[in-house]
Amino acid sequence: MLTKDRVIVCKDYDEMSRRAADVFADYIRENPTGILGLATGSSPEGIYTCLIEDNKAGKIDFSGIKSYNLDEYYPIEPTHEQSYRYFMNDRLFDHVNIDKANTFVPDGKCADPDAFCKAYDEQVAAAGGVGIQLLGVGRNGHIGFNEPGDELIGATHLTALCESTIDANSRFFETRDDVPRHAITMGMDGILSAECIVLVVSGKEKHEALMMLLSGKYTTNAPVTLLRSHKNVYVFCDEAAYNG
Ligand code: F6R
Questions:
Q1: Which of 9, 19, 154, 181 sits 20 to 30 Å CA-CA off 197?
Q2: Atom of ligand 1 nearest to the CA of 136
Q3: 142 given a catalytic annotation
Q4: Which of 8, 10, 84, 4 is CA-nearest to residue 48?
Q5: Average pLDDT estimate for 45-56
Q6: pLDDT in tens, 163-179
């Protein structure tokens, strides 16, 4: 359960990133062949910078580590600068000693998304499941691309992005029309079955989503609220997100 001592309010984005990165660095040291669940977007970028520094300083070793990313736009080429595969290579994988063959991001150009999603879940399970899962949260409370709605889906699946998510992510594309309308995302089962979850929340535009999580209520209209039930979850936020 999410207890008060697991909500760590940091001065700013940099402190939040360093402290959250320390949880990952400890995990990597304790589990040299562990499995990371990774996220993209602005929230985790600072963590990746810290992990690169730690790797270069010889404090952590990625050589035995595997990673599975939460989501990917659909359709998109992996070489597209806004694809999540490109993001992960650029922000982390190209700069640490991880074997790229051990890094997995949903395939944004697969011909049969349903078959792909099923195989992705099977692959994660066969690898032993995610040891530590990094998450950001959307302004609307989404995690991965599990968007608010009457129902949430357990398995990895193809989903339509909400208009508000398309608006938020259009900052990365030339025009709003260029934002893919769909994504492949791990579902709630995949996220909640990680042994440990680290959520990072930065900026006042995330205040409402953070408060929904901290309110003590559960709602599928803010998928982030389901994290409360997890047995080993940390929330690192900055003062802007906490105070609004
Ligand atoms: C990204 C992901 C999304 C983002 C969320 C917040 O892999 O799963 O749920 O974490 O949209 O994005 P940022 O961090 O860019 O505000």
A1: 181
A2: 10
A3: yes
A4: 84
A5: 98
A6: 999 999 999 999 999 99
